[in-house]
Specification:
The chain is an alpha/beta fold and 343 residues long. The chain has helices at 38-49, 81-93, 135-154, 169-174, 184-187, 191-203, 226-239, 268-278, 291-299, 310-314, 318-326, and strands at residues 8-10, 13-15, 19-21, 54-61, 73-74, 97-103, 116-117, 131-132, 159-164, 210-215, 243-247, 282-285, 305-307. The chain has 11 helices and 13 strands. Bound molecules: flavin mononucleotide. Flavin mononucleotide is lined by residues 22-25, 58-59, 101, 163, 165-166, 213, 247, 285-289, 308-311. InterPro entries: Aldolase_TIM (IPR013785), OxRdtase_FMN_N (IPR001155), YqjM-like (IPR044152).
Length: 343
């Protein structure tokens, strides 16, 4: 019977447990150059020492105007590789595998003078109106995703996550509310996402899995639901996605009836549905920081991996404490064994 601390394997990726640190922007790049610094090093390496099986580095953008803010990580230049490689190497030393979320914020790029998007529709009344990308620029953006993935692979990551959720550029393309284009990227709403997947795969070793994060439902007025996102995800699966990371929302102002519940595990039903209907492995995320609950999601076969975000912001040693609470085997750093006297 599987549990949170059962090792996991997918293609060439092998994880010592099923605990994932999901991508979480730190907005901590001081020089606005997209380069990781000591904050990022300490932040990620602490979670590796803290026992996480897989750490997915925060949203890292394919061009300067693809950042939410000027303080976000980037991979548009080879100069950004060494600082990431240093983090990856140290995380490996402490037994964690490392992924990175490759992204473009599109119309949600707050510091861009003029953000770009599939169509010139602002996020809300307080946001800048984006400029519609030309067809040629869309194709160039696909290439930029591929180049960023190439750099991530050079930095030594074990897995790539493409950000197709939360209302960022890929989501903007596949949502009928934000894509009103009349070219090939409008007649086929998933064309951009599929090309990004293919460009990423070209740069990845054949045994490296590709994760895609999607918003399985939208929270805006008249947003898409699970049936629509299921067919979107199926197209992405056919294009090469090996594992889905199931989130929701983020695409615009939340409608009264779209407001998510505040219950624990609120996104697990979505993850389970995608896993069952598309027959793909999934990561469940969203208020799963109670160890017995996270363990049950694996034991009940609702997801293959569980991500704990805010729980790990509070406590880098979340995984070590969860193993202790669940009485599961875990290798404690010898320096910290006195901190876990009940084992
Ligand atoms: C500070 C912060 C930054 C985040 N940044 C990202 C991000 O870069 N990419 C992403 O896909 N989700 C991001 N998220 C969402 C988390 O990955 C996660 O899905 C969310 O926090 C729900 O999980 P939790 O209840 O375990 O925190 C962020 C969340 C937080 C709290």
């Amino acid at each position: 019977m599987k549990h949170l601390f059962t090792p996991y394997e997918l293609m060439g990726l092998s994880l010592k447990n099923r605990v994932v640190m999901p991508p979480m922007c730190q907005y901590s790049v001081t020089e606005k150059d997209g380069i990781a610094n000591d904050w990022h090093y300490t932040h990620y390496v602490s979670r590796a020492i803290g026992g996480a099986g897989l750490i997915i580095i925060e949203m890292t953008d394919v061009e300067p105007d693809g950042r939410i803010t000027d303080y976000d990580l980037g991979l548009w230049s080879d100069e950004q590789i060494p600082a990431l490689a240093r983090i990856v190497e140290a995380c490996h030393k402490y037994g964690a595998k490392v992924g990175i979320q490759i992204a473009h914020a599109g119309r949600k790029a707050e510091d861009a003078a003029v953000p770009v998007a599939p169509s010139a529709i602002p996020f809300d009344e307080n946001s800048k109106t984006p400029r519609e990308l030309t067809t040629e620029e869309v194709k160039k953006t696909v290439q930029k995703f591929g180049e960023a993935v190439r750099r991530a692979v050079l930095a030594g990551v074990d897995v790539i996550e493409i950000h197709g959720a939360h209302g960022y550029l890929i989501h903007q393309f596949h949502s009928p509310l934000t894509n009103k284009r009349t070219d090939e990227y409008g007649s086929d709403l998933t064309k951009f996402g599929k090309e990004v997947i293919q460009a990423a795969k070209k740069e990845m070793p054949a045994t490296m899995p590709l994760i895609m994060r999607i918003s399985a439902i939208e929270y805006v007025e008249n947003g898409y639901g699970l049936n629509e996102s299921m067919s979107i995800s199926n197209e992405y699966k056919e294009a090469g996605v090996d594992l889905f990371h199931i989130s929701a929302g983020g695409e615009g102002p939340i409608a009264a009836e779209g407001r998510p519940g505040t219950h624990v595990a609120y996104q697990v039903p979505l993850a389970r549905a995608v896993r069952e209907q598309l027959d793909v492995p999934v990561i469940a995320v969203g208020r799963l920081d109670e160890p017995s609950l996270a363990n049950a999601v694996i034991g009940n076969e609702e997801a293959d991996l569980v991500a704990v975000g805010r729980g790990m912001l509070r406590n880098p040693y979340w995984t070590l404490e969860a193993a202790t609470a669940l009485r599961k085997e875990i290798q404690l750093p010898k320096q910290y064994q006195f901190g876990f006297p009940n084992r």
